Amino acid sequence: MNISKSAKAAEFARAGKWLFYFVLIGLIAGAGAILFHYLCDLGMHYFLDLMAGYRPGGAAGEHLLLPQTQTPFNRWILLIVPALGGIVSGWMVYTFAPEAEGHGTDAAIDAYHYKGGRVRSRVPFVKTIASTLTLTTGGSGGREGPIAQIGAGFGSFLATRLKLSERERRIMMAAGIGAGVGSIFRAPLAGALFAAEVLYRDPDFESEVIIPAGISSVVAYCLFCLVLGWGSLFSAPDFIFQNPLELGPYTVLAGVLVVIGALYIKVFYGVRDIFKKLKVPDHIKPAIGGLLTGMVGFYLPYTLAFGYGIAQNAIFNKVAIPTLIALAIGKIFTTSFSIGSGGSGGVFGPSIVIGGAVGGAVGKIFHMFIPAIVTQPGAFVIVGMAGFFTAVSNTPISTIIFVSEMTNSYHLLLPSLLVCSLCYLLAQRWTIFENQVKSRVDSPAHAGEFMMDILQTIKLENLTSMVKNVRCVNEEMPFSEFKKIFQTTKQHYFPVMDGSGELSGIFSSTDIREVIFTSYPENLVVMKDIMISNIITTTPSEDLNTVLLKLTQKNIDALPVVKEDAPGIFLGLIYRRDIISYYNSYVKNISDQG
Q1: CA distance 592 to 594
Q2: What is the pTM (predicted TM-score) of this model?
Q3: Is the four-CA dihedral 498, 502, 503, 504 of positive or negative sign?
Q4: Residues 19 and 153 in one domain
Q5: Does the pLDDT of residue 425 top 90, yes or no?
Q6: Of 12-16, 34-38, 69-73, minimum mean pLDDT range
Q7: In principle, which of 29, 312, 320, 450 could form an S-S bond with 180, CB 3.0–4.6 Å?
């Protein structure tokens, strides 16, 4: 009873310790989201409003920190401001933390799979400042990239300081991603699911991440909303899906989203590859990208910065079809120039704007021809947001929840599920996150785990034909007699039997070297003097994982197999190479059947 109470107390203390860690990660991620939000507000006030007179609208849930200026709008200044932001951002990134370039979520995915969850402590700080400069000078990008790296960076830092294992560090890093994304977009449930789903291209989840990320995300969200106000990011009418015939236009929307999504990814990485080949210093490249962004913005200013304001208007059916189409195409290029050139920012924000614009255009077109079926084009904006990001990221589940939480439009779950499912099925070959792996089996973070899982399901009794009958020796046999046997065999391990025929020890050819190369009288040495009596054995009921662990612990190549209820009855030797050969054949059979 005392032992049970002690174990329960220890388990409770362990749970409390981890709860504290995840709450702490949530607090830091929430504080980082607040800081980043304020920095973006200040940057847009001084760089876009004060310098160029450009005042892009925001989502309904966002409020200005400072009042707008009276500076007249100047397209020529708007042309060069993104380049100025790009050159300062590029210098900072490539001087202090080159891994902070591009969209931060992909860097966090890379750290999870390939770097044991390690994120350099300077990366979140550099990413925050560089992203602020890129986004608030007109560069097109999202807030989730930098805030994901802030949360991930602190989770990694905390785990490293506490000397936790790589597995625990990865979990804490992922919890930071969920907390950062969930708070900045006011979608805590989606943030937790996103952190678990975005790691893989297949519909796979990192299940051990969901609860930690959920705790951190809730804490970060509450802190963020306590300071910046409660409510969803976007405001939307109370859209209600109630006509099954509307699923036809939604199916068409899914096809259009997949095509535009493929274009987005091709342009994004095409621009990235072109900039990588440019023979100019790396820190200059974001300035060139900024200039190209400014050239698009000169004619289409609403494609610059975040673009949430025009997406908000589209939800209320206040944007014309040509503008929506121009927004979608222009945003693809401004995002590609801003981030693909080495600038810093996220890709989720631009994706929901592009998807919303495409959805709005498709919805308005259908409303023109079949108004009795498509009665609310604004609903297509919201479903388009979800479908487009699914098409480019392979994250259908978290994206459906994301857009529902961001717009408070839960009545559109059914069409969103249809569109996201179709987009996922049709666009699996593409992803905006290059470091996603196919599934848990393909992740270096889980190397060996699946081999262990399979080995644990196979009993040694399945390998009866591989248990070798070998030559045994009596423990009283003189060494001089054994030498004659040894000269005629290639056997490496020799079980030793006592007078009653039971296993009493074992030795290898390595163990007899000392006797062979010494001047001891060989007739005085018997096999009992050479054998190892403290032997490790296995039985037919043990699983192969346990057998391999025993072989590894002693660094030996073979293990004596004995009877289950009679440990002295020797059945034969099982060799490491035979276990591995059986495992390879077993996996091949599974693969062939699959």
Answers
A1: 5
A2: 0.79
A3: negative
A4: yes
A5: yes
A6: 12-16
A7: 29
